[in-house]
Automatic annotation (TrEMBL):
GO terms for molecular function: quercetin 3-O-glucosyltransferase activity; quercetin 7-O-glucosyltransferase activity. Gene3D superfamilies: Glycogen Phosphorylase B. The lineage of its organism: Eukaryota, Viridiplantae, Streptophyta, Embryophyta, Tracheophyta. It is an enzyme of class 2 (transferase). This is Glycosyltransferase.
Amino acid sequence: MLKSMAKQAHILMVPYPAQGHAKPLLKLAYKVASHGVKVTFVDTGSVNSKPFATKSDKVAKHNNVVFVSVSVGVKASEDQTQAETTMERRAQARNLIDLIRNRKDSEITCVVADVTMGWILTEIAEKLQVPTVAFCPLSLGSLALICQIPKLIEAGTIDSNGKLVRSDEVISLSTDIPPCKATELTWKDSRKIETRDTEKSLFGLCKTVQETAESAEWIVFNSSKEFEPAACDLNPRCLPVGPLIESEDSKRTSGAAGSFWLEDTSCMDWLDTKPPESVIYVAFGSAASLNQHEFDELALGLETSGHSFLWVVRSDLTRGTLLNYPVGFLERVADQGKIVEWAPQELVLAHPSVACFLTHCGWNSTMESVGRGIRLLCWPSFADQFHNASYISDIWKVGLKLTKDKSGIISKHEIKTKIELLLSDKSLKVNAANLKKESQESVLPEGSSFKNFEKFLNLLRR
């Protein structure tokens, strides 16, 4: 068992306000709270006007986690100068410092903040001398690539604004870390959405991440040494404590913790009616999107596969346009498919009827899948998703990548064909089962993630 705490630690956790960042940090909050640590979790904002804390209060109270709302100014204005942005961030950081100083219940003993918000850690460490820890929701491999930014600029691969100079470059850090094409660097956006400067925003975040990673005393990850041994060896200050997933015997009501979206649990009853390993689960996370042509091809690919499918279709999945299904599609698949706006994903992935997951390859979805032994069909679109897809298909060999045709579209034929290949390849199933076993062993006593979590707890009580 983990050692009991000499005194009750009280940590302040500060997430970046996006589901892919906030949810794994909240899971970590629940985990440390179960070991006698008090957690004050800062609600820094919302996504799609859906408040985060209201989805989590019921579970949080049970786990000794308290929510507070504090503005931390995570989004700088496009026309702000660097000096203005720095001044604003320092002013907002004072909100957190005041919160820490005014806690009447117990003293804050440590601050854990998302790696994209390292400036908060710097301000608090300087002003209060409170121990600080960064939390990274990406893979260790993705962080290692981001930390190459200065070298990529020096080598002339990118300019100081992150724009490609030599697009044919391939960045390779180790034989066990997937190589990365320059066109698929974390801040590059293959979607080419013209309504927002996504690449500029992502590069700014990546620069912050790189700076935080270089200065942080410790960085906690939702990963494990078994998944990324080479990447772990690159940075001795990394603490992979994952995978952070619900236990398989969790109740069906537990999945809502940390979700910005209202989960439709009716899909669980629908899954109960299906044979084992017969359902294709399809979801693209909270941010990835499709154009109408891609959406149509996906719908028709699922239909022509002949397999039952559970498809998560957010209201904004087709890039802000109204959802339009192919003519007659909903009527034809009425008995074949189930469509919901949001699903309790971990519960879905743990269900015996699910055969595979067609995914955008976000890191949380990746961890939740490999921790369940689920095979993956990869449809990445931006950020770290391409690198995650390479881990899945090339390193772990637990899934396949979907390939675009000459017009840049993933066709219904490609989807149907890859589903059949994925489900018929026995080696992928064996590899997925082996990876699941490794993930389970890593969080057991004497496992690598267990030991790292114990080290993390010891950091909290210093």
